[in-house]
Amino acid sequence: MKTNSRPASVRSASPVAMAMASCWMCSSTMAATSASVTVNFRGEYSVPTCSVVGDQDQIVVLRTVQARDLVPVGTPKEETRFTITFQCPSGVNNARIFLDGSSVDTSTGNLVPQSGPGMAQNVQIHLQNDDGSVIKVGDATTMKVIPVSGTQPIPVDFYASYYPTGDVSPGDVNAIATYVIDVP
């Protein structure tokens, strides 16, 4: 008869128990010798931006007109051209100059001038793209997307005009619009 020379406790252990014991010994050995490691992830997502060339703030001086000349109601009068020049980095294919204002007539999309003593009444400032299409201030869909090729400055012309909404009373006309260069 053959006798087994292994101790009784080992003889009765199943193969699964042996595997678990050996994994426990490995993991406890590794835990004792592994150093804690920190992994930092960093990145940046940026949108290419275009910049204004020249003066960012502009004053567009409309021609002086007689209140009686601002007829009929709803017809833009006395266009004045103004230009915004911008420049984009390489990789930009299109840009749009987005015009917005804090005081806009939502039915016409025109700028509503400041009111008060000495200010004209019943007149707005009407804006157009260089092709004559109407700009509704604050509505990006009415502002032209401009093709960009290269990194050269791009001048973009716009037109501003008086827009009578009724019998115009004489006075100053001051309206403010802001603009940003959007990369759609």
Keywords:
184 residues, alpha+beta, Immunoglobulin-like, five-stranded antiparallel beta sheet, 2 helices, 8 strands, 30% strand
CATH architecture call: Sandwich
Q: How many strand units?
A: 8
Which strand order does the major sheet show? 1-2-7-4-5
| Count of helix runs | 2
**SSE ordering:** HHEEEEEEEE
Could you say what the CATH topology is called? Immunoglobulin-like
The helix content, as a percent range, equals 10-25%
**Rg, please?**
36 Å
Shape: elongated
- Which regions are unreliable across 5 or more consecutive residues at pLDDT < 50? 1-11
Query: What structural class do the secondary elements suggest?
Result: alpha+beta
- CATH superfamily, by name, is Fimbrial-type adhesion domain
What proportion of the residues form beta strands (DSSP E)? 25-35%
Please describe the biggest sheet, giving its number of strands, its sense, and whether it closes into a barrel: 5 strands, antiparallel
* Average of the residue pLDDT scores: 85
N- to C-terminal distance: 90 Å
Determine and state the CATH class: Mainly Beta
Number of domains: 1
